[in-house]
Amino acid sequence: DYIEKLRTDYSARSWDTESCGLHVHVSRSAFKSGAHTHRFLSLIYRNPREMMKLAGRKNSRYASFSDVYKPDEWGVPQFTLRDKIHNKGWNTERYSAVNTNNDYTLELRFFRGNMKREGIMSALELCHASVEYTRDMTLSDVKLGMLKWEWFADWVSANNGIYPNLYLRMSKVPSVSLDNKPLINA
User: Fold this and answer.
1) Could you write out the three-class secondary structure of the chain?
2) Please, are residues 161 and 186 in contact by the beta-carbon 8 Å criterion?
3) What is the spatial distance between Cα 57 and Cα 108, in angstroms, rounded to a whole number?
4) Which one has a higher pLDDT value, 25 or 88?
5) What is the Cα–Cα distance from 22 to 55, expressed in whole angstroms?
6) Rounded CA separation 84/174 (Å)
7) What pLDDT, in 10s, does the model give residues 35-87?
8) Torsions phi, psi for 102 (to 5 deg)
9) Residue 89 pLDDT > 70, yes or no?
10) Per-residue model confidence (pLDDT) at position 26
């Protein structure tokens, strides 16, 4: 496989560097509406600890989770995705956890570099699962709390046959719990 060839023949490395990250681009056409994009971004930005632990990369200057906090009229930071969604994100930082500056894609930048197939597949599965989980979510679902990590983790657990690498990674990462649920459709 190509990744192994890079590692052995060219001494390529990714995990143990400060500046290397894995970036995944999700097509804007994957989202059925602006509301769907908003739910997707909310899932990621409202669960930064879990996303960073799962991705193996801390909040950094290359993938900041803090660009969604803007001061209100009294200077108190408030969570807002307005600048990330309107104008295709042109008012936000390129070096944010999710770069929305691209015309045709959203770029998820918060993954630590990885040279293992399972690690790369886990990142891809997290992106796909996040898009699909938020696809048909209603406002009532959001009000119920379905953008909280526990709900998403339960959904991944119930769909672990579709996301085997993500499920396995989530069960191994400290404080990213799936409550030891039995394998379903494995």
Assistant:
1) CHHHHHHHHHCCCCCCCCCCEEEEEEEHHHCCCHHHHHHHHHHHHCCHHHHHHHHCCCCECCEECHHHEEECCCCCEEECCHHHHHHHHCCCCCCECEECCCCCEEEEEEEECCCCHHHHHHHHHHHHHHHHHHHCCCHHHHHHCCCCHHHHHHHHHHCCCCCHHHHHHHHHCCCCCCCCCCCCCC
2) yes
3) 12
4) 25
5) 9
6) 30
7) 999 999 999 999 998 998 888 876 666 778 888 878 788 888 888 887 777 65
8) -75, 145
9) no
10) 97
Q: Which residues pair with 110 in a beta bridge?
A: none
Q: How do beta strands 77-79 and 98-99 pair?
A: unpaired
Q: 59 φ, ψ to 5°? A: -55, 120
**Sign of CA pseudo-dihedral 156, 129, 100, 41:** negative
Which of 156, 148, 159, 150 lies closest to 45, judged by CA? 148
Q: pLDDT, tens digit, for every residue of 119-170?
A: 889 999 999 999 999 999 999 999 999 999 999 999 999 999 999 999 999 9
The token pair that represents 92 in the structure block: 């936000």
The strand pairing partners of 145, in sequence order, are none
